[in-house]
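Justification of resources, computational component.

The compute hours requested in this renewal are based largely on the per-chain cost of generating structure records like the one below. Each record pairs the submitted sequence with a full structure-token output. That output is archived, and it is also reused by downstream analysis tasks.
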Amino acid sequence: MKRWLQQRLPDPRVLVEHWALRRVAHLLREPQLWVLNRRSVSGGVALGFFILCLPPLGQPFYATIGAIKLRVNLPIAFSLVWLSNPLTIPPLFYFAYVIGCLLLLRPVPPFNAHFWIDWHNWLGILGPVLLGSLVCATISALIAYWTVQGLWRWAVVRRLNARRRARYARSLPGPLLGSAPNSEPASESAPASTPASASEPASAAGCASATKAPSSSRKM
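The structure output for this chain reads:
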């Protein structure tokens, strides 16, 4: 899992030069922000999902500050917030609005694009959207954190079991080299004994004919 993340995460030098991180570039020299271990990766994923579900105002900056304060993986948290884009924002925040309305015991109106575009309605939907976003962010962060923890543990256990099986296979004794040549002649000598057994009746018949020859000459 660690190698898979190393191949897909952005280069730290490229990330530090990003326009959204120039103001805090001097704070990004902490090694904990770039290390890949179970705590750092799971914390970075949880932070990224939490910021992702919040209103899209300065999300990369907030993800960077959160990673610095919490000492979690910065590239993971910074990359996940970009899942919030013009394609995902409308369904994401409408779902947050529905959750907020349900928690505030308000009726949930059907989706209407004109209602959302009209800025006169923004003040009325701000409360449910913020409450629903906070609830969704908290639940998403918890699910993401424990999912990464479980996957990391599973990968470690799988790797350890593979090493144990390989070590056990190397500890097993090899094939007995001395017994293999001895067993082959024994199997080859078995067919050779059959002609000898076949010749025994022939020799017995010859002896019987030899004994019968003098007796017949005596009768003559």
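Residues 122-171 form the longest helix (50 residues). Residues 47 and 134 are 13 Å apart (CA to CA).
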